[in-house]
Every structure is written in C-alpha cells, then in structure tokens.
Design goal:
heterodimer; A: alpha+beta; Arc Repressor Mutant, subunit A; Glutaredoxin; 2 domains; B: about 450 residues; alpha/beta; Rossmann fold; Ubiquitin-like (UB roll); de novo design (two linked rop proteins); 3 domains; five-stranded mixed sheet; 13 strands; about 40% helix; binds flavin mononucleotide; binds iron/sulfur cluster; binds FE2/S2 (inorganic) cluster
Chain lengths: ~160, ~450
C-alpha cells in the first residue's frame, strides 16, 4: 500500500513552495498536513513527506522528533492540552489535570479513540489560568468542577488539531 | 506628555470583534499611516524609530531603531520575520494582540518592510496557537485582496511586499531568534552560534530583522505621531507604553497596557484589585519565568526596562550566599523586564515547588546542543524536585548555585541564562525555605 497526499494537500503545498527559495522550509506545513491526512507520522508517512519535498528520510525524521505537536502513533480525535506551568499551577491547574485524568480514565500522555490528554507547558493564556486548549478552542479559568461538562462538550463537538491545516 | 493610565496604543481594540475585519479596521483610519510611510524616505523612518526609544518587547529590550540600522545599506533580499512564538511562561500578550488587531501588525510590517527594503516577510506563529493562526491567515488574505500586499507595496509600485504566515509545531526554543530562523528553514529548531548576527546573515543566509509582535505593532503610532511623542510617553530610554500580563494570585489577572512609570505595588493594588482572596503578598516573577523574582521590599520600582536592571532597591542575585553574580564589566544581575509576564504569588505558596516547576520546564525545553545547558537544567530539575519533596540533602542548595553558575555565560543561546537566573534568584530571595527542606545529612542513606 503506498500513501499519497490528497489533491487538496498537494495544491496547498504548491502555493507554499512559491513563498520560499526551496521546498525544505515547507516541511512543518507538510508534516501538519500529513498528520491530518494520515493520522500520525509513522515511517511510511515520513517517507511520503521526504519524497514530496526531495529530502532524506533522516532529515524529516530529525525534524519530526524535535517538535512536540508531531506524533508517531495514532492519538485521539481531540487533543486536550492542559497547562500546568506556573500561572496555572498557582491557580490549581494540577487539580484540573487530575480531574481530566479521572473523567477520561487516561493518564497524562495517554490516548483513547476520542481524546489524547497532554500536560502542556504555558499556552499563553496565563491571565485566565488554569487554561486548556483543544485545537482552536480555549477553555479559560477552568475549575475541576467544569471538567465533566468540557469533556461532554468535546465529545459532541470534536476539535481536531488538523482543523486549521 | 507621559502616558496616563487608560491611554492605550496596541491594546486599544481589545474586545472589538469587528476590528478583525479589514473594512472595520479601515473605517477607523487603518492603513492610512502605512500610506503616509510610503512617502517617507527609509532613513527618516529609522531616525524616528531611533528617536522614539522603542525597545524590543520580545524579552531583551533591545532598541529597535538600532537593530534596524544594523542591516547593511546596500543589502538586497532582506527579510523581516515576526516572532509570534510566545511561550515564555507567564506571557500572554502577543497571542491576544494578534487575535484582536491582526491588521495593526500587518500595517506595522508593511512600514518595516518598506523601511528595510524587505520583500518576503514572515510571521512565525507558535504551532499551538491555532485560533490565532486562522485569524492571521484571514487578515493577510484580506490585505492582499485590498492591494496592501502583493507585487506593488500599498499599490505604489515601489517594491513588492509579501507576508507568509509560518506555523511552528511545538518547541519553546523556537522563540529564540536564531532557532526560529533554523526552524523556518526546515531544520531542527536549534539556535545558531552568533556572530554572524541575523542582521548580516539571517534567514536563508540573507540580512534579517526579527522583531516581536508588540514591537512591530507600535511602529504605526511612531510614524503617525513622531518619535519624540513616543519617547515622551515613556521615561528615560524606554519609550511608549508597557503591556504587561499579570497572572497568579491577584484579584484581577489580565493584560494591561500601562505607563512605564507605574510600580509593581501600584500594579497589584490599583490595577489588579489587590491580592487574591485578601492573602498576603510573597513574591512575583517580573518578566516571564526566566527572570529572577522580586519580594515585597522591591515592589516600589517601576516596570520600566532600565529600572529593573539597575535600581538599588532590588537585591542582586547571589550564586553562593553573599556572593553576587558577576555579569561582567562590574555589573550585577538584579532582574529584567523580560517579556512582561508578571506572575504574583501569595504567602501560602511553596516557592520551592514553584521553582522546581520552572526548572522542569527549562529541562524539558533545552535543545540539547550545549553540555552546560543540557546537563545543568537536568540536574537543577532533579535536585529541585527532591528538595521540593522534602528529601533534599545537606549541601544541595550550594550545589544548585554551582550548577547555575556553570551554565550562565557558557552556552550558545540565552536559554542557559533563562534557566540559571531564576534558580539563583529564588535561592537568593527564599534561601531559608530551600534549606529547611534539605534535611538529609551528608553521607546518610537517602
Ligand atoms: C529561549 C528564548 C526564547 C525566546 N522566546 C521568544 C518569544 O517567544 N517571542 C519573542 O518575541 N521573543 C523571544 N525571545 C527573544 C528573541 O530571541 C528576540 O530577541 C526577539 O524576538 C527580538 O524581537 P524584539 O527586538 O522586537 O524584542 C526568546 C529568547 C530566548 C533566548
Ligand atoms: S543554551 Fe540550551 S537551548 Fe540554547 S543552544 Fe545551548 S542547549 Fe540549546
Ligand atoms: S502558565 Fe498556563 S497558560 Fe501560561
């Protein structure tokens, strides 16, 4: 089975090539698109990206492993990023994270079909701590009591991170 | 005239949902200043920016006019890159700035591009900022449709001006300007050795100016009302207003644009409604987690760039008890204005746990290129964790000082200092709390 970018992805990449002196700078955009279309960045996906951009697999692999948003294995539809950095920590962000773990039956770093739960570093929403981000959706000034409601909301309104690719 | 409370520049459109649309922005006079700038010679604009005392809002407070003047006069293929990576813990202004006023950023970029002779310009936005990415992409498309961007800058035929929004993918270090450039080039986001500086050899090997979002959003105001006017809003060598992000234990956390002269005490008491739940103040982080904290006796200092580095009321940070950190040239490190992220904590806060959380952040974010940073952040994280857990050993506090001192000044980029300085600062200001938790005697089994 050989994987292929969709027509739509290819035309997006074509536009981007025109914005840079070579194809290499398009790698992050290509990887975001690949993760959207193929679900993760397993070896054969890395191969597709390498071929598309005329780069070595080793180069692409090196880039993939540097950034935290790229995943090598399938995750849940919606990634829930819960900040526990200082501003959020001071306003009980760890309790919010624990409430997500309880509600989802997942530990931080784990996934099921619907959700991946991530303990995140500061997401630049410190004035509304504790903060949670899921794709384009922010949940601000979150309390542990609101977590049930947030999860139920996301179940019926998924916010995959691929929505802005 | 010095700025007054309530006099807003970059945050004045906060809460105005319509303003994201180009028609609404234009209706309020938007893009008129860029048009005016097209008629000004580049050297005049640089002079105005120099006179304005505008200092970079990304963390280092470097004078913007001076930075622009480092680009060689005869340079071709200059690039302007906007740093919208905002990941310094405690900082949350740039994300909101681009969300509420994307066209102000684009207008600032058009003026900067005209001044620098830059054709291909980029906004590097942090990967997790998906909502803001969508806002920026739409705003850029609108600006193209209206002819502000494209092959003829503002339709004048003087030069082309293109803006591409470039998404990151999760890595704090990509906020460091040379790591950002490597990331943009499609490499791992690791910082470069300097020199050469980006103004000489930056993106794709060409002269490049990297500026913070807020820095560029101030440019239209300076061109409109003049450098002197902007300088007068501020104080000393810090022109304009100061946008701070206040979080933690205050009643009203928020993003506030204020006069440079306001003190931390006024900020907490008058602007932020005092301490949360009426608790007592213990300390604050003044400019993102990279900066040494301040305690109560140090709160009467203004939030302005120079005061935080030089005011005698702020105690210098120490490496070993009683030995201040030597920054070279006889200077001692007090603290810095940094990114404007102010994190306030109250009397009930376990500062060792707080410092430990900061160390785990820098350990996680070190790119691993330099041994002092890679190993040192790991050790500081580990030792802070064990002290926080009440399992510190006799001598651990001194060890932390030694490690921090071994990192600062010995690394490729400033992430080394960003980790070492708060470590030294917390130890200086809250030493007793660290020592109280180091209870295991030397030689005893843990
Ligand atoms: C580890 C590290 C992280 C940084 N992160 C950011 C950032 O997220 N945003 C930013 O504008 N500057 C950041 N900076 C500062 C940039 O390197 C650079 O000085 C700044 O973007 C220049 O813009 P300015 O002169 O307008 O402030 C960071 C620096 C370091 C050392
Ligand atoms: S100081 Fe740290 S983050 Fe900076 S280049 Fe060295 S290892 Fe990387
Ligand atoms: S510390 Fe949580 S959003 Fe900044």
């Amino acid at each position: 089975m050989s994987l292929k970018f969709s027509e739509e992805a290819n035309s997006k990449l074509e536009v981007l090539y025109g914005r840079y002196p070579s194809k290499q700078p398009v790698i992050l955009a290509a990887l975001h698109l690949a993760q959207k279309e193929f679900g993760d960045l397993r070896d054969e996906v890395i191969e597709v990206v390498a071929k598309t951009l005329d780069l070595s697999k080793a180069h692409v692999f090196g880039v993939v492993t540097f950034y935290t948003m790229f995943r090598r294995q399938q995750g849940g539809t919606t990634t829930i990023r819960v900040c526990t950095n200082v501003a959020c920590m001071l306003r009980d962000g760890y309790d919010v994270l624990a409430a997500f773990e309880n509600k989802l039956g997942l530990k931080r770093g784990e996934s099921n079909a619907d959700f991946s739960l991530v303990e995140e570093e500061c997401i630049a929403a410190c004035a509304n701590a504790p903060a949670v981000v899921c794709g384009t959706k922010y949940f601000l000034d979150v309390t542990p009591e609101q977590v049930d409601e947030i999860v139920d909301f996301l179940k019926s309104n998924p916010h995959p991170e691929s929505e802005v690719c | 005239m010095p700025a007054e409370i309530g006099q807003l520049l970059v945050t004045r459109r906060f809460g105005d949902e319509e303003n994201k649309q180009i028609t609404s922005y234009e209706a309020k006079g938007g893009y008129k200043i860029a048009r005016k700038a097209m008629l000004m010679p580049a050297s005049d604009i640089v002079d105005q920016i120099k006179a304005s005392n505008l200092r970079g809002r990304g963390g280092a407070g470097f004078p913007t006019g001076l930075k622009w003047s480092f680009v060689p006069k005869d340079a071709t293929d200059v690039h302007l890159v906007v740093n919208c990576d905002e990941s310094e813990p405690g900082t949350c202004k740039d994300r909101e700035l681009v969300y509420w006023d994307p066209h102000l950023l684009i207008e600032g970029m058009i003026i900067a591009a005209h001044t620098l002779g830059a054709v291909h310009n980029y906004i590097y936005i942090r990967g997790e900022m998906m909502r803001e990415y969508a806002v920026l992409v739409k705003a850029v498309e609108e600006a193209y449709a209206r002819g502000y961007l494209g092959d003829r800058i503002m339709g004048t035929g003087k030069q082309a001006c293109h803006i591409t929004v470039h998404r990151g993918a999760g890595a704090y270090i990509c906020g460091e300007e040379t790591a950002l450039l490597n990331s943009m080039e499609g490499l791992r986001g690791q910082p470069r050795l300097k020199p050469p500086f980006p103004a000489i050899k930056g993106l794709f090997g060409k002269p490049t100016v990297v500026n913070n979002v807020e820095t560029l959003m101030n440019i239209p105001f300076i061109v409109d009302q003049g450098g002197q006017w902007f300088a007068d809003l501020g104080v000393g060598r810090s022109g304009g207003t100061r946008t701070v992000c206040v979080s933690g234990h205050v009643e009203k956390p928020g993003i506030y644009e204020l006069p440079m002269t306001i003190t931390f005490r006024e900020l907490i008491e008058d602007v932020c409604g005092g301490m949360w739940k009426g608790k007592k103040f213990k300390g604050l982080i003044p400019g993102g987690t990279s900066m040494p904290p301040l305690v109560d006796s140090e709160l009467d200092v203004p939030v302005e760039f120079d005061a935080l580095m030089t005011d005698e009321r702020i105690k210098p940070v120490e490496v070993t008890e009683g030995v201040p950190f030597d920054m070279g040239g006889g200077r001692q490190l007090r603290t810095m204005a940094g990114s404007g992220g102010i994190v306030v904590f109250d009397e009930d806060t376990d500062v060792v746990a707080l410092c430990s959380r900061i160390m785990s952040f820098y350990h996680h974010e070190s790119c691993g290129q330099c041994t002092p940073c890679r190993e040192g952040t790991g050790w500081m994280d580990k030792i802070c964790k064990r002290i926080a857990a009440g399992k510190g050993k006799e001598g651990d506090v001194e060890l932390l000082g030694k490690i921090a001192n071994g990192i600062a000044g010995n690394t490729i980029c400033a992430l080394g200092e960003a980790a070492a300085w708060p470590m030294m600062g917390f130890m200086t200001k809250f030493r007793a709390e660290f020592e109280a938790k180091c209870i295991i005697k030397k030689g005893a089994a843990a």
